[in-house]
Structures are given as C-alpha cells and as structure tokens.
Design brief:
Metallo-beta-lactamase, Chain A; seven-stranded mixed sheet; six-stranded mixed sheet; 7 helices
C-alpha cells in the first residue's frame, strides 16, 4: 500500500455557521472521524481529533495561534488521537480515566487497529514506519470534566452538554440553541450505528428527538438536516421496538 505525506493527511472545508469540517481522507469512511472546528470570540472549539497518526495542529492551519478547547465526544481511538496536542481538553467525567490512560483495550484500538485490518481502514498508510499493532493513543488527561447541562462557552457562542450514553458510557453531544446545531459524536450519524448498551441508547435517542435540531454534524459520514435527524431516530426506535 502507498504511503501518504503528512501534508495530505488532513483536509478541511468551511461550512455555514462558522463551522469547519476537518477529516482524514486516507482513512475509509467507516473509521474516518469527523472533526469539527468552531471559531469563537475568546477561544475556539474542536470537537474530536481523529486517530492522531499525523500531527493535527501542525498540518491544519486554523488550529494554530489561538486558544482551543478540544472536546472529546467520547474516547474511542478514532476520536481522541490528537487530543494531547491541545492544552485545554474536556471529556465527560465517565470517560476521564480513559483520556488519562488510553489503553488499546479501553479505546477499542485492539479490536479495530491491527496489521491484518490495514486494508479495511486505510486507502494510503500514514507517513513513517507505521504499524497498526504498535498504534497507541497518547495520554491526554482532561483539564475539564463535563457533565449534563454544562456549557461550553466560546465568548460569543455557547454549547450545552448533553450526556448521551449508549455508544459509550460518557458519550456527549453539544447543542447550540441559537443556531440549532448539534455535534452528535457517535450517538447519531447517517450510517450504521453501534449501540453498545441498547437500553441507554434508546433513552438517548428519545431525549434527542425532543431537541429542535436544524443541522447535525456527526462523528462519521455527512452532516444532515433536522428532518433527516427525526427520520433516523424514528427508524432506530422502531427497529428496537420490533426486536
């Protein structure tokens, strides 16, 4: 398999509402984490940080030169790999121990990141002498612990923390009432969902359905409208009720 350069590892696209999408194009969609940057008056917000196999701050210019709070939607390997590059790091209290000690087992890297799954994950390998069996998320102890109802304050923009267990114990969403934006992590996206604890996942979906969402920026796959948001939730809940 060909090896990518560090300069081509990340791509970015500016969206509406002051949101920038950052992604790793050489990782296949199922494993490719969406990273979301929001420019604020006093500091910026970064939701998730990818695999961390190439320096995120060195390669993505919008992440340089300003204070940034890096929030983890949850602590699976594909979402917290570069959190150690940021001085301010936030995660739900239930997963703070994993941020501090991100073992391959705790981050699910032992299941998904193996040398015999390289072709399933990458279209081009990261630069350097990359070996999946040696992959390890770097410790990034949280500087702030998040709970249900907390606010992430950028000065002129405010995101409410919503605790959404089910995919993982400390999964969260960030909801901005002023714009109708929901950063949903892996709780809901327009693709195959992974409900680790089904009872919790159902309750999280029921909670989300009551929120007047305009646009969803999820942990994987493309962003979608509030109408599609309702469709996805209703389809999930209907399937679980039939099971």
């Amino acid at each position: 398999m060909q090896i990518a350069s560090a300069a081509t590892w990340y791509e970015t696209r500016a969206l509406d509402d002051g949101v920038t999408h950052i992604w790793e194009p050489h990782i296949k969609p199922y494993y490719r984490c969406n990273m979301w940057h929001v420019r604020g008056r006093d500091r910026d917000l970064l939701v998730d940080s990818g695999m961390g196999v190439v320096s995120l701050r060195q390669q993505v210019g919008i992440l340089a030169g300003r204070p940034i709070l890096a929030v983890a939607s949850h602590t699976h390997f594909d979402h917290i790999g570069a959190h150690h590059e940021f001085a301010e790091r936030a995660v739900h209290r239930a997963e703070a121990a994993i941020m501090a000690e991100p073992t391959r087992s705790a981050t699910y890297a032992d299941v998904h990141v193996k040398d015999d799954t390289v072709g399933d994950m990458f279209t081009m390998l990261p630069p350097g002498d990359y070996r999946s069996a040696r992959y390890q998320v770097t410790s990034a102890p949280a500087t702030r612990l998040l709970e249900e109802g907390h606010s992430v304050d950028l000065g002129d923009r405010h995101f409410q923390v919503i605790h959404l267990p089910g995919h993982s114990p400390g999964g969260i969403g960030l909801w901005e009432a002023a714009t109708g934006i929901l950063f949903s992590g892996d709780t809901i996206y327009d693709g195959p969902l992974i409900d680790d604890v089904v009872e919790d996942y159902i309750r999280s979906m029921e909670r989300l359905r009551a929120i007047p969402v305009r646009v969803v920026h999820g942990g994987h796959f493309a962003s979608f409208s509030g109408e599609r948001f309702i469709e996805l939730i209703d389809a999930y809940l209907a399937a679980k009720r039939r099971a």
